[in-house]
Amino acid sequence: MSNHRTYKKLEIVGTSPNSIEEAIQNAITETANSVNNLDWFEVIETRGHIIDNKVAHFQVTIKIGFRIKAS
Question: How many C-beta atoms lie closer than 10 Å to residue 49's C-beta?
Fold first, then answer.
């Protein structure tokens, strides 16, 4: 059996009214409810919603890599 691993990437959008970090964690936590073997993430895009000249909501697009199990 080889030590090489095969990965698949998902593009996910996490949101939070509090922070970019919480938006990332929310995306990972929700994805982990239905996908096994999560291994890494990369931030692709960060956006926000402004209300009354203040940041009201963060939205972060990430790619999450997970290991494909060998059969």
Answer: 12
Domain annotation covers residue 22: yes
* Model pTM above 0.90: no
Which CATH number covers residue 11?
A: 3.30.1660.10
CA dist 52 and 70 (Å) reads: 52
Strand-pair partners of 13: 61
Is there a contact between 56 and 17 (Cβ–Cβ < 8 Å)? yes
34: domain range? 6-68
Query: How many CB atoms are closer than 10 A to CB 46?
Result: 13
Q: How many domains does the chain have?
A: 1
Considering only CA atoms, give the Rg of the chain.
15
Mean local confidence (pLDDT), 55-70: 93
